[in-house]
Design goal:
By secondary structure, the chain is of the alpha+beta class. The protein has one domain: Aminopeptidase (3-Layer(aba) Sandwich), CATH 3.40.630. Helix content is 29%, strand content 18%. It contains 6 helices and 8 strands, in the order ααβααββββαβαββ. A 4-stranded antiparallel β-sheet has the order 1-2-3-5, with helices on both faces. Strands 4-6-8-7 form a 4-stranded mixed β-sheet. A hairpin with a 2-residue loop joins β7 and β8. The longest helix is centred in the first third of the chain and has 14 residues. The protein starts with 12 loop residues before the first helix and ends with a strand.
Length: 240
């Protein structure tokens, strides 16, 4: 799939091969084989990700709104540059992880995920809310229907949405944006025919990036009840 020109590091074949070799040496201790596509995802992410990762001491005015088609360009810019700043190994995702068959995931290029995010937002197959700070998207919550996820759909998904994934750009973490996103989702989802929101929470995230599914304490403070625990995750739900 073609790389948008403004996101293309424009490396020659030789330069890209050399960079892949460097990365293979750096990550030689990983317990799995890195494919060329994995390395290219990393190389391209390093090129396009913002360098600012320090938390801001204070932030400007916050507006939390549902994503509409008019927001797509800003959403793409958020995932292109800001969402995974400092975490290039995750930047290929474009919030598609939960909407793709797990057997396909490791062989995907970021360009495909980016294109699918665009198409899903246009068609309504993905639902999200974003927090804008002084007009710029600073945080995102994917609260799509559970039926859209090969990982979680059960066949009995009518009226059930899932808080699949938060992404808060590093400078804006610790300012309550995640809570504002979840509270807004709770407010707007009934109008879309949703009667239950679920989440797969982590009780003790290893770092802020790893809290992308939402910390258990956040869900509990917003009225979610524990359903079950499995494999280090807590299934939580709230009826709305």
């Amino acid at each position: 799939m073609e790389t948008p020109r403004h996101l293309d590091p424009q490396l020659s074949d030789e330069e890209r091969a050399e960079r892949r070799a460097e990365l293979r040496r750096r990550f030689a201790d990983l317990p799995f084989e890195l494919l060329d596509v994995n390395l290219d995802n990393y190389i391209d992410a390093e090129y396009r990700l913002a360098s600012q990762t320090e938390r801001l001491a204070s932030i400007g005015g916050v507006e939390v709104v549902p994503v509409t088609e008019a927001d797509i360009d800003d959403v793409l810019a958020f995932f292109d540059h800001d969402a995974f700043a400092g975490k290039p190994e995750w930047a290929m995702c474009y919030c598609r992880f939960n909407h793709v068959d797990p057997s396909e995931w490791e062989s995907r290029g970021w360009q495909q995920n980016r294109a699918e995010l665009t198409a899903a937002l246009r068609s309504g197959d993905m639902r999200a809310v974003v927090a804008r700070v002084d007009g710029r998207i600073a945080a995102w919550l994917n609260c799509s229907d559970r039926s859209t996820s090969p990982r979680y759909a059960t066949g009995d998904d009518a009226g059930i949405a899932q808080a699949f994934c938060w992404s808060v750009a590093p400078p804006y973490r610790g300012h309550g944006l995640a809570r504002s996103l979840l509270e807004t989702a709770i407010e707007i989802l009934p109008a879309a025919g949703v009667h239950t929101i679920q989440g797969h929470a982590v009780a003790d995230p290893g770092d802020e990036a790893s809290a992308y599914v939402g910390p258990l304490s956040l869900y509990e403070s917003c009225g979610f009840a524990l359903v079950e625990e499995s494999d280090g995750r807590a299934l939580v739900a709230r009826h709305i």
